[in-house]
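Usage

Read records sequentially. Each one opens with the input sequence:
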Amino acid sequence: MTEQEMRKRLESLKIEHRDLDAAIDALTLAGSTDQLQIARLKKRKLRLRDQISLIEDQLLPDIIA
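and closes with the structure output:
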């Protein structure tokens, strides 16, 4: 995967992460009793965060000085 492809993927993952956050907030504020759905959304959000971190690490590796 090229750097440009990684940056596009990173941006799409960040957008999806924000959308999931908004969906979770909306369900919570609406008083949704479907805790299973909220839990699934939160789990998906965590997986996205892991993918985002992985790509960011590949794009900006830690340099120990």
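Summary fields computed downstream for this record:
- The CA atoms of residues 36 and 46 lie 15 Å apart.
- The chain is about 80% helix and 0% strand.
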